[in-house]
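Need tokens for this chain, all 119 residues.
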Amino acid sequence: MMEEPFGFSFIFSIFPVLFITVFVIVVGMFIAVAVRGTKEWHQNNQSPVLTVSAVIITKRQNYTRHQNGGSTYYYATFEVESGDRMELSISGSEYGLLAEGDRGQLTFQGTRYLGFERM
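Here are the structure tokens for all 119 residues:
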């Protein structure tokens, strides 16, 4: 009978454990992201729709590359009369229409941007 090289059997005995561990971590992360998104969606739906005076402080874009291209996400930071600031995700068309320093009425529900009407 031929003797196996050092570590050969060890690698094949540890591989299933590593594979299952990585699989569980990936599935766990997927579930955590889904639960967090569902929770935020539910909290937004339970929040009142508010319209407040606000100023656009800044705008930014976040470009994320994917294997098949990429996605651009748009954000605007609003400052309300109390001095509190909130960054909300907005659409690309809204991003193009808004300018830093604009004053108006911000309508939102929780963390969900609903609109901004300049005054």
